[in-house]
Structure formats: C-alpha cells, structure tokens
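Folding Task

Wanted — backbone structure
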Amino acid sequence: MVINTCIKLMNYRHLTPSMSLLLIFESAARHQSFVRAAEELSLSQSAISRQIRQLEAHLDVTLFERVGRSVRLTDLGEQYAATVHEALDKIRGATLQVMSKARGAGSLSLAILPTFASKWVLPNLHAFYELYPSATINIQSRIGQIDFNAEDIDAAIIVSRAKPSAPELMSHLIAKEYLVAVANKRESTSEVMAPDYATGSLLLSVSSHPSAWSDWFSHYGLDHRQISLGPSFEVTAHLIQAVSVGIGLGIVPEQFVRDELQQGSLVAVGEPIPSPRNYYLIYPRRLASSPTLQQFSEWILSNDFS
C-alpha cells in the first residue's frame, strides 16, 4: 500500500511540470519564437532555450524543431501547446475571479475608440455605475491593434469589417455601422442635401476607413472622377470639428453626429448608408469569468447603439 502510494505520488509529480516551465513553453509556442518569448517574460533567450530543453527532457518529447535561428512546434508540440494554453487560461481566469471577489469589487481596463468613448460610452456610463456601484471602468483611448498579451488591457471596443475570430478571443457584436456624409449647416437651408452636392466638393475622411467615400459614391451611382479627396483624420471627432468650421464635407458614422444633425450645426448629404464595418466588444477568453467584465459586457450589449 505504501509502495503504491509512493508510485502514485511520483507519477503525479512527473506529470505536473513546474509552472515556470509551462509558462515559458506556452509563450514560446504562442509566438513560435524564443526571442519574442524572452521579450515577453523579461528573460534571456538562452534562459528560454535552456528551460525548453529541460521540459523536453522531462517529457522525453521533442516539442520544437530548430530550423536555423528559428523554431517551430512539432506535431506533438502543437497538441501539448493547445492543452497547456487552455489550462493556463482557466487558471488565470479562476485567479482573477477569486481576487475580484476577495476585494469585494472589480476593475476593468477598457481600450476604446476615442469618438465611441466621447459620443456614447462616457455620456451613458453613469447608468452602468447605477447598476454596479462597486465596479471601476478604467478607459484608455486607443486606435489600432490591441495586444492583450503584451498590454495591461482587459477588453476593447473596436471597429472591424469582419468579426474577430481568433480562438483565444471572445467577440460580441455591439452595433452595425452606418455612414453619413455631412456638411456645415451654412452650406444649405434644407435638412438633407442631394447626394450630388458631394461631387467636386473637398471631401474629408478618417484614415482608418480610406474607401468610405468610394463606397458612398458607388452607393449613390455618382461618378468617381468627381471625388476630390482632402485631408484625412486619425480621430473621427477631429473630422467632425473640421466639417463644423467649414473645411469640407465629411463622411462619418451616423451614430456619432446625431446630436449635431438634430441641433442643426451639421446637415446630412444624402441618407445614411450601410457600412461594411461593425463595432465589437472583444476580450481574451481567459478573462471571460471576470465579474466586472461580465457586468460590463451584459450592460453594453443590452443597449441600443444602432
């Protein structure tokens, strides 16, 4: 009986490599690079290589093939990496949930498009805090790619032509985007101007959506040779401001200029048209059990941004 117990304990220990080895392997497998794993974990490349060799010796399995200065997973390495990645995600999620419950409150670091934040989230965030007064949402204005593994970000609101489909991500549709061309109210006394007013006008755009005016002209059957592109802006709010002072016509998400259209400071050129892009809430699958993330996700998905 004692012998069987000792053998069982020995097997459990052998089948459970140290957490440091697993963390290093998971990072190297995810990046398919010892160099990038070293950068992510603040270790030397030689330390990464040494620990991988130690894990391979422990398992008596070759996990990586060395090809010149690069590495790639073997078939067994890929199988092991998928399981280890899932297991570590569950551990991280469970740890986060326990820590949040122990504090009695939770915080969420949210990366968000600047204009989406100023036009929709911030004006409505009081409603979220009324429902969840102990939660804290830390907002970072961001444009461009989000790297959840390298940045201190829990979730993000993005705009994309396709729904993010990476296996490590959760993705929820917030709203479809509709585009509207707008001009300064001084350009017209009517509430909606004819689409052909855009032909020959100076056209302003957002740099992240360079095809917007082309799509708009195609929708209305206008001659593309009449497109006269002007400055582009990284932030939609800056484009709206430029239109407001009369620099040119702008094409923007209709959701972002409703107040200006209702107040009469801007006038629509044509009717809003469907955009190929949509707004999504995304976050790592490993954080799906975070109470604050669950609360925020449920809240924002229950609101109508269309």
